[in-house]
Model the fold of this input.
Amino acid sequence: MKSLFLKEINAFFGSLLGYLVLALFLVAIGMIVWVFPESSVLEYGFADLEALFTYTPYVFVFLIPALSMRAIADERKTGTWELLRTSPLSLVQIVLAKYLALLCLVLVAILPTLLYFYSIMQLGEPVGNLDQAGFFGSWIGLIMIGAAFAAVGLFASSLTSQQVVAFVLGVFLCFVLYFGFSALAEMQLGNLSYWAADLSLSFHYINLSRGVIDSVDLFFLIGMIWLFLGGAVLVLRNK
Amino acid sequence: MSLEVSQLTKLYGTQKALDEVSFSASPGRILGFLGPNGAGKSTTMKIITGFLSTDSGDVKVMGKDAVNSPKEVSPLIGYLPEHNPLYLDMYVREFLEFSGGVYGLYGAALASRTKEMLNRTGLEPEQHKKIGQLSKGYRQRVGLARALIHDPQVIILDEPTTGLDPNQLVEIRSLIQEVAKNKTLILSTHIMQEVEAICHDVVIINKGKILASDSLSNLKSNSDETILILETEEELDLEWFANVGKIDFGTKGRVELLISTTDPALARKAIIQILHERSLNLVSLNQSKKNLELIFREITNA
Done:
């Protein structure tokens, strides 16, 4: 399993794709947080990284399915899937190795944003005047959202052997889970609204970003990850 | 017997892809799995390796049940799938080390196995190239090296020589013969000459059914018929020769006939007579013992 994990990581960094996606992410987020006047922290005037945490999920909705689309779809298309499936690795090990590699990549993408934290600390008046609990709550929330999207993307990739289809499906599923349910919740549908909000990833993400790391929110996100990874295993087992 | 396949049946919808396929293979002998395209060769191999499930039947590899516990059996099998799928953007050496790792090799054992495989398959000069840069023959070597990296007892090669040029063909064949020593090796092909060149045993399959399963020498000597190959300048009609023996058009189409008979002397006389009566221009008339190609055609057309 370790070999497969390392192979996946190498595939990201051995090809242009990994760097391209990481660079794109950091540039996009950097622009949003520091440059665009509507969202720039510098224009806003408060020592606060709200912009980072509000807009990153938007970028993730596209970025993570782009990273995950080839994970399984491409193996199936080129036939190397047969090599993996006839090896001693079980399906669960294969899916898990691929998922962990994706997760590492998401972490590598998010890690540099700690520099933003440092910069804002320094910019605060007085220095260090920043809602640290809020920041780290949001930051952990962001990692969890990335992790959940990665599971969704991997699931999408297991459904088809066409990378593009996997990408579109992944974006769609991430979008529905993050924005769709919360939009539904806002439609004032009584009890249904309540459930829709509960199912929405953004609801749990916002809870975390208040700086209170509630086990319910964490369990929900972890459950979501297990659900989609399990779904991928089931789909692949029946193929 | 290190590989035993018994009563294997596989359905695709209502169509029987395999119909009670049974055969066995033993160490030190190369078994040629012969059949036209779509006969069920790949399906059988995919079931042995655990990639496909079976509807009924048993596969035993070194005495272990491959149908119900494929993960126990997979370390015993070295498998080269059809079309030889590889990670084209990996380096040769990197790919072999990855494959060894998947089979649980690590550290010094992995390094020495990788080195040995590079050496045996003649890939040493290419080890730092990307697989995508290699020619088809070299890719085939990489696929073979991967299949053998964990030193399996049973080697299964699905059409290992398709699409190679004549030189590569000879190289890969001799490589296969070399690795087959003391191992059980099955290779599928639709090229008869290949089976005649390197196999000891032959299994002929068509439309999911086993039609013949014997050693190559038995299969050839069982038939006491002789083949006469007649070529003329004019187009021929099967009916003219209906009384001479069993006839069929040859590879050159309507100007060549294959006539199988148990009494070649009599048949030759009759043929000359017919040529004379119809004033046909003879190009050649050859006589040969039955080769596998003819046996195969006879069996699969019956």
